[in-house]
Design a protein that fits this description.
The protein has about 280 residues and is mainly beta. The chain contains no helices and 22 strands. It has two domains: about 5-160, Immunoglobulins (Immunoglobulin-like), CATH 2.60.40.10; about 170-275, Sandwich (Immunoglobulin-like), CATH 2.60.40.10. The strands form five sheets. Strands 1, 3, 5, 7, 11, 13, 14 and 15 form an eight-stranded mixed beta sheet that branches.
């Protein structure tokens, strides 16, 4: 069964791809739903899902679909490369119907993506579905007189997992806790290393215990996406008050449904910086 991201993640953007000049305001906007698809599949069994494009502009627009790989670089920046050139590529599995179409002003167009995974697929695979408009000349020009062309592009991230093949393993390293003071709240940062064979969406929770092991504070992070092999930091903040004394910060990172990694860090609040 296809799983879609919450409505707040549905794309409603217009992205200017500019040739020869910086971005200028574009007079049209297109929307794509969903903006992200997360789905489990059975290896060797084709499946399909539906998408829709809406033209919220005042003129008809000609669009075409392009599929790329989806991965990341050493700076954790998204990389959209040619199909089949990135690890765990799903781009070559996907075919669109239709591939080219026109959407009238105020209208919409439904599309179908047909996915044909190989029988030996294991773990997670990734792609991006881009809907792009044809570059059109604008009424602007560069300083040397060259014409400026603009177009729109929006994308849908595709994260697929072969059923019953997940091997989860997430490591937590480089834990750094900054105790609260009179001028700042508590901060806890740590490195997440996804050694799984598929993507995870970890969420971190922090519990602060006093010397009597009673809960005196808690915090929760935003959910963050990690592809296989990806490393990045996560951070928790807590802005409450603590008396002078000894405390324990309990970090729990939940991922992959029921998997949990837990760490404990002891810290103290000196009397001179205590709020009470």
């Amino acid at each position: 069964m296809m799983k879609l991201t919450p409505p707040r993640l549905i794309a409603f953007v217009f992205f200017c791809s500019i040739l020869l000049a910086p971005c200028l305001a574009f007079t049209q906007a297109i929307a794509l739903a969903p903006a992200q698809i997360v789905e489990d599949f059975k290896p060797g069994v084709p499946f399909e899902y539906s998408l829709a494009v809406a033209n919220n502009g005042h003129e008809a627009v000609e669009l075409h679909v392009r599929v790329t790989d989806f991965w990341y670089n050493e700076k954790n920046e998204k990389v959209f490369s040619a199909p089949g050139t990135s690890p765990r590529s799903a781009a070559n599995w996907i075919q669109f119907v239709p591939e080219k179409f026109a959407v009238p002003a105020g209208g919409s167009q439904k599309m179908k993506a047909i996915v044909t995974p190989p029988v030996d697929a294991r773990g997670g695979y990734y792609a991006v579905l881009f809907v792009e408009s044809k570059p059109l000349p604008s009424d602007k020009a560069t300083e040397d007189g060259r014409k400026i062309f603009t177009n729109m592009r929006i994308g849908c991230l595709v994260l697929l997992t072969a059923k019953n093949s997940e091997a989860y393993n997430v490591r937590l390293d480089e834990l750094k806790l900054l105790p609260p003071s009179e001028t700042q709240g508590l901060k806890l940062s740590f490195l997440v290393d996804n050694e799984s064979n598929t993507h995870v969406f970890p969420q971190a929770r922090l519990a602060i215990l006093n010397p009597q092991h009673k809960l005196v504070g808690k915090s929760e992070s935003q959910i963050k996406r990690f592809l296989p092999g990806q490393k990045d930091t996560m951070q928790l903040d807590w802005n409450g008050d603590l008396n002078a004394g000894e405390y324990t910060a309990v970090l729990s990172v939940v991922y992959g449904g029921t998997h949990v990694e837990t760490r404990q860090i002891a810290f103290s609040i000196p009397a001179k910086t205590a709020n009470k």
